[in-house]
Hints:
Chain A: The chain crosses the membrane at residues 20-38, 50-83, 95-115, 121-142, 163-187, 215-234, 273-291. Chain A: This is Ribose xylose arabinose galactoside ABC-type transport system, permease component. The complex is a heterodimer of chains A (320) and B (500). Chain A is mainly alpha-helical. Chain A is 78% helix and 1% strand. In chain A, strands 1-2 form a two-stranded antiparallel ribbon. Residues 1-7 of chain A have low confidence and may be disordered. Chain B has two domains: 2-235, 3-Layer(aba) Sandwich (Rossmann fold), CATH 3.40.50.300; 253-488, P-loop containing nucleotide triphosphate hydrolases (Rossmann fold), CATH 3.40.50.300. Chain B has 17 helices and 24 strands. The termini of chain B are far apart. The A-B interface holds A 185, 189-191, 194-195, 197-198, 201-202, 204-212, 268-269 and B 297, 299, 318-320, 322-324, 329, 331, 336-343, 347, 350-352, 354-355, 357-358, 361-363, 405, 409.
Amino acid sequence: MATxxxxxxxxxxxxxxxxxxxxxxxxxxxxxxxxxxxxxxxxLNLLRQVSINAVIAFGMTFVILTGGIxxxxxxxxxxxxxxxxxxxxxxIPSPLALLIGLALGAIFGxxxxxxxxxxxxxxxxxxxxxxTIYRGATYVFTDGNPITGAxxxxxxxFQYVGRGYLFGIPFPIIIMLVAYVxxxxxxxKTAFGRKTYALGGNETAAYIAGVKTKLVTVIIFTIxxxxxxxxxxxxxxxxxxxxxDAGTGYEMDAIAAVVLGGTSLAGGKGRMFGTLIGALxxxxxxxxMNLLGISSFWQQIVKGIVILIAVLLDRKSSKA
Amino acid sequence: xxxxxxxISKSFGANxxxxxxxxxxxxxxxxxxxxENGAGKSTxxxxxxxxHKADGGxxxxxGQPTTFTGxxxxxxxxxxxxxxxxxxxxxxxxxxxxxxxxxxxxHGLLDEASMRKQAQQYLxxxxxxxxxxxxxxxxxxxxxxxxxxxxxxxTDAKIIIMDEPTxxxxxxxxxxxxTVVRRLQQQGVGFIYISHRLEEIFxxxxxxxxxxxxxxxxxxxxxxxxxxxxxxxxxxxxMGDFYPERHPTPGKVALSVKNLTxxxxxxxxxxxxxxxxILAFSGLMGAGRTEVMRAIFGIDRYTSGxxxxxxxxxxxxxxxxxxxxxxxxxxxxxxxxxxxxxxxxHDNIVLPxxxxxxxxxxxxxxxxxxxxxxxxxxxxxxxxxPAAEAGSLSGGNQQKVVLAKWVGSGSQVLILxxxxxxxxxxxxxxxxxxxxxxxxxxxxIIMISSDLPEVLGMSDRIAVMYEGRxxxxxxxxxxxxxxxxxxxxxxxxxAVTNGN
Lengths: 320, 500
């Protein structure tokens, strides 16, 4: 009995704190190899780099908790960013342009949700299709050219999103933290969050217990689209230009952050905190390897290996 | 070929499922095996085909002691088992299914022409003609049954075991099946025929063995037994005082259903259940009881008929609507439909009531904790740890958790589908006591149960269904196991009906 409970605790420990321990070990390793890592400038820089992926990954956490996936986030990021940039360069007031950009992202997410919930399409296939459609729409909209212009540089609010500082902290980090708090509360403190877990754990049982499973699915994909658009605005502002190929492959980094954070791709199990840690692990890897001068080709291999190790460890701990 | 099972015993853990069973079948005969669910028929057949190992007893094949290492070994020795659930690959063609894993090859490539020709020959032997290139899923269940028999012939079966072969067949298909069985019987094939439909036994079998609680209680030539005798042998056990006494004081009508119909599933179902009453739904598996309840609860559809809840007409399109109207549904399959196994007791119990615990948009966790520990205490769930994973509990405790969900959500009409299936005796009694307590508080309960003693012990009235129709509603006081069983097997004439 004693050994059984000890085992159980170990399992819980790995599931809950494993990612955090991995992050701390990684930070120690990078610090030893490159002492400059812990400088405040570098840390703020790292967090700012992380913010875009983290914001997408927070939304993705909900989707993956239901057992779904959303491959279209990178394309939503690009399309929302491009439309917003073009509105600003054509003189639309930036608060309005930013709001419309976010709303567009929500609508693209809503379409994904409707396809999955009511069209009964597998999330992988449905969002694979919309990924291509949204990306194509971005190319059509921009005619394949980056959108830049003096008006983007002159709009204080638009500039502030990606480049501003609040109390000395880069504003993207503030956005990331606010998004984290809101989605953390939504997932862990509200009825909607409970329904998300129930849906991912056993859709039939959740439905019979009165959860409006289709509605919940649609809302989750809508939130996810909104978060991707928010990331798009940060990136567009930061670069002062909207690139038609922006966000390519970002869905993979977001999924990786969620999975590294211990959320099960089968749905029903995971935590928002884990995703934050997962995003930080990926950010620390990127940042650390840059500091160490490792080529970006090798960086990809290392990142892949880290993800594999995490997934294999997770399988072991959940089987024990 | 002659197979003799002698004094077969088998237990799974502490659960003795077979005790000293004798059973014999030989070429050219049809031996029927009947009994209630859980009587041990399947286990006996699984021992015969080598899937399970007997704890005691011997099997003689043509006088030689034999054990098969498994179903494949049995098949190679000429014993073929056609299961109720046919394991076909529905999108693959008839011929591909028939030759799966025994494909004919020519120079390493599939010899499709020969396979097609042989498939047609085997089917012709059964008097059946069909397009062997059609995906098997596009054929009727009757046709698929024929293909199963053809597959048995391909393995040169001497004894064919059929488990509920007619469960999903139309009358015409049943006639065709019996024609084939008789034809093969004349060619020397022996059959073990498992069925719930007693009238069929008299039509097709020459010997019948009745099993009850793991014992072969009778075995005789079909011509020497009567329907009533078979029914008595099947159900004749004492109820004792295992069930708590009921003192029903039915109030006004809680749920009233009129002429509920969904073509092909159930038709013309009318009944009413009162506050404080337990209305049992009895019938054989597949009689349509669960389907009716799923339709009322908004999980499935119904095309015509009306449902009234406390006098107001309702037509639920989703469980969420039904729950909002104080209806609760403990589903038959708690693992697939009742519980989220990876979630805690707390989260499972709170789920149907979750919207009631919102305080400024957030969940009032103090209130949910109190709510859950109250229910866990009241229902004596063990372990009484709200954080425990639902999947880690025993069957009885899992069932209590599902009950707690619906009790907690304040259900005024509670549908319980097989509330004590897979639940040990002690937990059973606790669930019965709880049902009594609920009806004392004027909750109306509809209990679907395939356990006849339970139906007679725990209900006030009994509705009996057969093949999608309501055969009658009888007061429990005047009902007997025989009268209910007679209705449940589609035989109306002897039973007293009371349309209320």
